[in-house]
Amino acid sequence: MSEPTVSIDNFQHELVSVCPRKYELRIEKARTLGGQSAAINAGISLHTGLAEWYRTGDVRLALDVMKANWPGGPDDPNDHRTLDRCLIVLAEYIVQYKNESFKIVGFPDVPVVEVVFKIDTGSGFSFSGILDAVGER
């Protein structure tokens, strides 16, 4: 019988460094606060849109993916981080950086975007995370 592997990722490392109690509740006891902030929602939405843009190079599809991944419900009228604003930000980003100085490895057939990895150290610990994208010049 092998001993259990402890998996460490950057999110968990930062969380335990900043607030061990929050780490305990969020990671060890799987508790979360009700709902997410507008900042988190906007970040998730922009991240999924960018991933789709770099995966496919299709502007319309990237914007559609952002819409599909928006958490739903009405936007807070007092917060600038709305779906419409996120769509504008992504569209402006694509115009500004349409001709990047790098190419996504494997594009267009098998682009290396949003790749989950886990590295087993062989000592009961592993390191894990997600590569947003791998580019080459």
Provide structural commentary.
- 45% of the residues lie in helices and 18% in strands.
- The relative contact order is 0.16.
- A hairpin with a 4-residue loop joins strand 3 (113-120) and strand 4.
- Strands 1-4-3 form a three-stranded mixed sheet. It has a two-stranded antiparallel sheet with strand order 2-5.
- The protein is an alpha+beta fold.
Feature tags:
45% helix; 18% strand; single chain; two-stranded antiparallel ribbon; 5 helices; alpha+beta; 5 strands; 137 residues
In short:
The protein is an alpha+beta fold and 137 residues long. The protein is built from five helices and five strands. Strand 3 and strand 4 form a beta hairpin.
Ranges where pLDDT stays below 50 over 5 or more residues in a row are none
Helix content: 40-55%
Encode the helix/strand succession as letters: EHHHHHEEEE
Terminal residue distance: 46 Å
Tell me the structural class. alpha+beta
Mean pLDDT, as a whole number? 84
How many strand segments? Answer: 5
The biggest beta sheet reads:
3 strands, mixed
